[in-house]
Give the backbone structure.
Amino acid sequence: MTSENKTSRSTYHHGDLRQAILAAALDVIAAEGPGALSLRDLARRAGVSHAAPAHHFKDRTGLLTAIAAQGYELLATGLAGTPDLRERGVRYVRFAREHPAHFQVMFQPELLRADDPDLLAAKERASAELRAGVAGLRGAPDPRTAGIAAWSLAHGFATLLLTHNVREAVGELDPEEYFRSLTGLLFPQAGEQHGAP
């Protein structure tokens, strides 16, 4: 057992245990994927009884749903205040790079409690931010279709990046700059909306 796994129960009080379990879960997901997640293992890592995580999340699905809701909130915050569609895409890619465990969980609905109010609210906030990026796109005959195309590009690139499938193509380049060049090819008008350069 490593020193980080020997955390004393007395360290956790009030709301700290919930955050500690979330943090431990994100570490496991980043290293081994969502399938490796176990409430009993997380309790051991946190140095608490095996029943403690269930008190906060009820079950594994509840924990994954909380992670997804947190991820959508982080994504919405990252997208906010960026009127340019291209830069919203860059921020989407940045979110995936900075929060890979959240990203893995958010888009696997079979792992989540679909009717969870926190998840639904967070998803709606993130969706609104994504839609806002397409709203002022010039020359788009169908904003919904343009939005799906833009999301597909950002999500697809982020997924390929995280799974190391574009390592050779990106090489030593900054992935965000590489993504900007991709959007320039497919959405040349993306940087022109809202008076952006």
